[in-house]
Amino acid sequence: MSTPAIQIDDLTKVYKVGETEVHALRGVTYQVEAGEFLAIMGPSGSGKSTLMNIVGCLDKPTSGQYLLEGEEVSTFDRDKLARIRNQKIGFVFQTFNLLPRTSALENAELPLLYSSHINSKQRTELALKALESVGLKDRAHHKTNQLSGGEQQRIAIARALLNSPSLILADEPTGNLDTKTSAEIMQIFTRLNEDKKITLVMVTHEPDIACYAKKRIYMRDGKIIREEKGREGCEDRAR
Amino acid sequence: MNILRTSRVALRALGRNKMRSFLTALGIIIGVGAVISMVSIGEGARRGVEDRFASMGTNLLFVSPGSRSRGGVHSGSGGWNTLKPEDAAAIEQQCDAVKYTSPSASTRAQVVYGNKNWNTSIQGTGAMYPEVRNWELADGTYFDESQVRVAAKVCVLGSEVKKSLFEDEDAVGKIIRVKAIPFRVIGVFKSKGESGGWFNRDDMMTVPYTTVMKRLTGQEYISSIDISAVSAARTKETQTQIEELMRIRHKIAPGAEDDFQVRNMSEIAEGAAQATQIMTILLGSIASISLLVGGIGIMNIMLVSVTERIREIGIRMAVGARQKDILLQFLTEAIVLSVLGGLIGVFFGIGLSKILHYVKIFSEFKTTVSPSSIIMAFGFSASVGIFFGFYPARKASRLDPIEALRYE
Ligand SMILES: Nc1ncnc2c1ncn2[C@@H]1O[C@H](COP(=O)(O)OP(=O)(O)O)[C@@H](O)[C@H]1O
Ligand SMILES: [Mg+2]
Question: Which is nearest to A107 in space by CA: A144, A56, A74?
């Protein structure tokens, strides 16, 4: 069997706020195979974002082990983690997190600014291709604040795709979008997962959205409490 | 990220806030401009002084009353009134390294010709003055020994006095009045090409020193003696000879203080150059303060900019920017601001020194913009950018990616 994309073992995360300690993760063990599409669900404050940040190499666990494609990254320093984020991981956020007053193209090519060996011509080419794949080629020179929420999220997806990552992490990607736009975004995700075999992990509140994924896990109080596979629990939902 | 790419990102970021970027750079523009123009004035003054002394001749010496050690303060025996015309005569006869001497006694007075008036300096000199001072006449002749002996009422005009009183008319042979005494003009000096109010050697006239003493001021002593050595190489020897002779003539006991001092031209030139050097340093340092203030302005704006762009920093970190990349980006913004400011400041400074040249009180110095002052100001402004940009840049690079992303 091939190396799992994500392998986490007894992860904990403790935040210190003044005197008190907040246990955001209380021992999470899980494994995501390459090419999977996983949704993480659970009430607010259950530790979903904390888990995503650690998996996304933006944060480090307090204890436990994390192997990303077989590589022990929980011991990496800041610069090594930045490299990993740049080369292997694409992020999509609820609030889009695009640079304001900047064109779609410039936003999309951002990850390539931090990877060497690519000149500006190639960069523009790759960014245009990524924008095309999310259906935004004709908006390349629009500033982000002139675009709709759905369009902004698609720029964010294009940006996430730019370094051809093996893993895309999306933290409530449809949280700020209407139902129709959400469906469009989910179709893009499904296509990326099925056609490009990109591993996808997505946090969401909405059962409808979660059902686009092939697997769902439920969190509560910093722990995984349940796992569903395939169409389990989604029988009555349209796709 | 390479330098080119970083600079482009920095330029783009600065371009998003053009007005603010310009105002920030303005501090550096003014600072660099001030340094360059101030130093150019100082340099101009130094060169002006050097040229002036060089044109007087390097074999020139002066004997003046008063002791060297007590500087400008003179009290008790001696004081200012110790030099007599006989001292000059004795020096010329007895010191073999001396070529000519010219006693000097001076005053200021109103000079009148027809309905024209001119207030000028009246220098009493010996007959050898043009030789001693290495100064030729444009017209007429200088007075001779016999005219000095009889305190003749003759005069030689500086070119500016001539112009003021006679304009294009011939001056030689005309009669002018000084303190109601008629003087015959017998010569006109060549112009030294100086203008303005300070040390203008064209704005003066000479008469025999005896005439100043007997007819104009009534003083019995001369104020100094101009001396030319036979050669520039022998000025040191000349100085010693004069000192020995004067100590005997003035009956100064061994070990006692002299009541006169002998200085040579290079000594005086050195002193003057030193004074202008100090002026240059002073002007330069005052101007540097404005450069420093400009640097603090950059730091201030960069700190504001880092706070405003915390989210941007978070986004960049999320897509793979390392600490080094963020540090470099903000540092480059600061450097681009200060270097662009410095560049504009260089042109501003050059322009300013050109304009200052036309301002009356600076007009007699040729303001010279030296390459070294440009390099210095430019290098200084770049280092100001690095120095004051570093702290905000480091602050930006040390942000936690998650906190930065979450920042509202
Ligand atoms: N930076 C932080 N400092 C302190 N507490 C935090 C921090 N981030 C998250 N938490 C706490 O950790 C818990 C889990 O948060 P989070 O992972 O954001 O939950 P979710 O995304 O599931 O809503 C919450 O109780 C939250 O208050
Ligand atoms: Mg969350």
Answer: A144
Residue A22 Cβ inside 6 Å of ligand 1? The answer reads yes
Residues from chain A contacting residue B322 (CB–CB below 8 Å): 78-79, 82-83, 114
Note residues around ion ligand 2 (Cβ under 5 angstroms): A 49
How far is the C-alpha of A23 from the C-alpha of B26, rounded, in Å? Answer: 51
Stretch among A179-183, B315-319, B383-387, B401-405 having the lowest mean pLDDT: B383-387
Reported ipTM: the value is: 0.95
DSSP annotation of B217 = I
Top-confidence range, A140-144, B60-64, B274-278, B334-338: A140-144
Is residue B230 within 8 Å of B98, Cβ to Cβ? Answer: yes
Alpha-carbon distance of B298 to B338, in angstroms, equals 8
Contact A82 B320 (CB under 8 A): yes
As given in the structure block, the two tokens for residue A79 are 């610069």
Q: Identify the structural domains of chain A with CATH numbers, from first to last.
A: 34-57+77-229 (3.40.50.300)
Residues pairing with B348 in the sheet: none
Q: How far apart are CA A27 and CA B394, in angstroms?
A: 35
B101-130: average pLDDT? 93
Chain A environment of B325 (Cβ under 8 Å): 114
Q: Per-residue pLDDT averaged across B381-386, rounded?
A: 87
Question: What pLDDT score does B76 carry?
Answer: 43
pLDDT at B273: 79
**Averaged pLDDT score across all residues of chain B:** 86
Interchain proximity A78–B323, CB inside 8 Å: yes
Place of tokens 């009956």: B251
Task: Name which of A58, A79, A99 is nearest B322 (Cβ-Cβ).
Answer: A79
